[in-house]
Amino acid sequence: MHTFLIKLKTFFVKLFCNTILSVDHTQDSIDRAESFLQSLKYFTPLAFILGTLNAWYMDNQEFAYAMVVIVFINMILGAVMHFKTGQFKWEKLLVKTITMVIVIGVTYIVLEVIISFAGEGMIVTGFRAALQIATLLYPGAKILKHVFVLSNGEYPPEWIMRKIYNFQENGDLKEFLGK
In the prediction, which pLDDT does 80 show? Predict the structure, then answer.
């Protein structure tokens, strides 16, 4: 992990320096052109990644907002629950929340990439919807568990909790949304 951070820092330092040198009028034109080409080498992958993320975000704004809100609510309710039991620690709260965001992000990205090769169609759209619901249910189910525990099992109703656990087990969207 440490070497990755050093490489990332080096990447941005080279990008910054080459960009500055490419517009520095005290340098020769050839040196400026070389610095410009070097900065293009660093900007291209960054621009590709940012463009891809932007395109995904434009198609999935509601999902992204929902994910941020649900993770934040989970963090708050988890803190309340652990505070009530006397086990609250800031470090643990932040580590668990960051871990959840990483797990959600990596899993969602991998599955979304796999789905993207399936093309378009009703089955792919249904699978993508199930993926997004399952992704939202990971922190969402934790929220409902926190609420269930904080309300001493009174809310949400037990049948809802069973539906959530069943969906997490079998992924049957029709059963989850059905009667």
Answer: 92
Domain boundaries, the chain: 1-53, 60-179
Q: Which residues of 51-89 are buried (b: 16+ CB within 10 A; e: fewer)?
A: eeeeeeeeebeebeeebeebbebbbebbbebbeeeeeee
DSSP 8-state class, residue 89: -
* Integer Cα distance of 171 and 106 in angstroms: 19
Report how far residue 70's alpha carbon sits from residue 46's, in angstroms, rounded to the nearest whole number.
Answer: 29
Work out the mean pLDDT of the chain and round it to a whole number.
83
| Residue pointed to by tokens 């070497």 | 3
Tokens standing for residue 36: 């410009």
The CA-based angle 57-62-66, given to 5 degrees, is 110
Q: CA 42, CA 7: separation in Å to the nearest integer?
A: 12
Q: Are 136 and 70 in contact (CB under 8 A)?
A: yes
C-alpha to C-alpha distance for 102 and 54, rounded to whole angstroms: 19
